[in-house]
Amino acid sequence: MSFRQRAEEEDALAQVQPASEHCGEFEYKRPPFAFGFHTTKGPQTSKGRYAQGKKYVVFYLDLSFIFLLELRRCRMAEGCMMALRYGMVFFNLLFWLGGCGILGVGVWLSVTQGNFATLSSSLPSLSAANLLIAVGTIIMVIGCLGCVGAVKESRPLLLTFFILLLLIFFLEILSIMLFFIYQDEIDHYAQRDLKKGLQLFGTEGNVGLTNAWMIVQTDFRCCGVTNHTDWFEVYNASRVPDSCCLEYSDNCGLDNPGTWWTAPCYERVKDWLNENLVALWIFALCTALTQILGLVFSMTMFCQAVKVETFYA
């Protein structure tokens, strides 16, 4: 090999691997042997691209994880809403059926018994039949609104159901508060009105009032509003209806006063209410709890319907 060829070969090796100084002499380092992947670091541009690609991979993994969490949460929310919808439908269906039953009883009393259980002379329309018809109709309307609104997830129906139920709830609370505040005035007015109703006992067109007084005096073993002498002003004589007798018989109210009930009916009814006060409070609390649950469920479904419509808008 000539000197010129050897010099050209050394120049070519120098371009592949730079020389390093060792002990005052220059030696050439051969690149290390690598099998498969290169063990030496690439250029700076390659390292930048590798880091950027790694960031993209991490970002995509985080995004996929968040998507899976949101999907799972949406499925859980959808399941909860489905259970809430079925609960609303079942509750309002029972509510509607109960209203139908109350309305049916009221219509039956109105057709067969007339103005049954009318005690007030100033409010003759306030009979048991009319009260049952009114209450049954209101319950049916509210139950129908809630049931249809839950099935169709209709915002107007759910909002109407919520407003009506909230209005009834506030009216009930207001009535209870006014009753306890004006309890003495209510007692005085009720006794005076009931005494006026005695004047209509047995007259034509007041079958409901007559039947109501006969049932109350027989079941509670009482006579008159505040005393059995309340009937003396009605008959203008010392006599009472036959339902005031200890042992019922025709014209027994004309006999000796010793055979009459003397307890006042107003106080007897109040005592009966006080004895069953716990049951009445339990019934009131259950009714209030049912109404509160209906308010919460209906407003929850209404808000969910608003979110869905806003999302797809």
UniProtKB/TrEMBL annotation:
SUPFAM superfamilies for the chain: Tetraspanin
Family in the record: Belongs to the tetraspanin (TM4SF) family.
UniProt protein name: Tetraspanin-4
Transmembrane stretches, start-end: 86-111, 131-151, 158-182, 278-297
Keyword Glycoprotein attached: yes
Compartments it resides in: Membrane
Superkingdom assignment: Eukaryota
Alphabetical UniProt keywords: Glycoprotein, Membrane, Transmembrane, Transmembrane helix
